[in-house]
Amino acid sequence: MDEFDIARLEREIRQYLGLDAAQLQFDFRELDGQTRLDLVTVNPRHQQSFLFRFETGRDKVECLEKMLAYVRSYRDNESSYTLQWRTRGDRELQTSYFRAHNVYEALDKLYYGRDLNTITVFSVVLNPSS
Q1: Domain ranges within the chain, ordered by starting residue
Q2: Which tens digit of pLDDT belongs to each residue from 85-130?
Q3: Which CATH number applies to 78-130?
Q4: Which residues on neighbouring strands pair with residue 67, listed in sequence order?
Q5: Which of 6, 15, 110, 126 is deepest in the core (most CB within 10 A)?
Q6: pTM score, two decimals?
């Protein structure tokens, strides 16, 4: 694994998405003999984190290469969803936007890393495609 390639690919993904290091986390882990990359976004307004996408590969570089290919084309291949939700104990309704193949995938991205009982979803809307 070349640390230079890893840093370069992470930088390209951040730049392509227009997010800084505080808004985009690269979480790697080993899973069943493969490397898994969870690309996680952090909303600067309410500091909640959501799954953007995951990829698996032989190593970090392969995962990052797959992720870069995905971010270059995901707007053409996935639908846009608007979700309105609130965390338990909070009074303010939040609105988040996700790209996903279907409503279930959008909800999975919202609930990533959370107990299902910590968020109440009020609406899920498939946005018109342009």
Answers
A1: 1-77, 78-130
A2: 999 999 999 999 999 999 999 999 999 999 999 999 999 999 998 6
A3: 3.10.20
A4: none
A5: 110
A6: 0.89
- Residue pointed to by tokens 């609105």: 95
Q: Which residues contact 82 (CB under 8 A, 6 or more apart)?
A: 95, 96, 97, 123, 124, 125, 127
CATH number of 1-77: 3.30.160
pLDDT tens digit sequence for 61-95: 999 999 999 999 988 889 999 999 999 999 999 99
Q: The tokens of 60 are what?
A: 């970090």
Calpha distance 42→28 (Å, rounded): 16
**What are the structure tokens assigned to 116, written together?**
């299902």
Please compute, for residue 125, the number of CA atoms within 13 A of its CA located in the half-sphere on the CB side.
Answer: 12
